[in-house]
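Subgroup meeting minutes
Present: P.N., E.W., G.H.
Scribe: E.W.

1. P.N. recapped why we're keeping a running log of single-chain structure predictions: easier to compare across weeks, and new members can see raw inputs and outputs side by side.
2. G.H. added today's entry (115 aa).
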Amino acid sequence: MLQSTGEDDLAGPGSFAERHHLDQLMGYLQVQDTKALLLLLVERSDFQRAQRSVTAALRGRPDFIDEGETPVEGWPLLRFHRGENVVEVCLATVSTAAAPRHPDSARRAKAKPSG
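Output recorded in log:
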């Protein structure tokens, strides 16, 4: 999991954070693994910029091959060489700036009896 907490974390294409976390993910994979998910949690308000920066950095790696059809809109499926194999990595980018809430949470709060 790659977590961005500030501007310096995503200083530009090819920054240490992107290289390190993808390398770490690849290290966990077994030889027969062909698919992986890299989860990027972004705490900043500039979510789109962070997403573009990390995606560009990963595309700029020497082991990057191409991009496949994404399973989820906004989460690119990137293909990388790994030895003689190809690994597809889905880059799942999630904003943590505003915690998701259950659709009924406002209604439940109003219905709660005060005690």
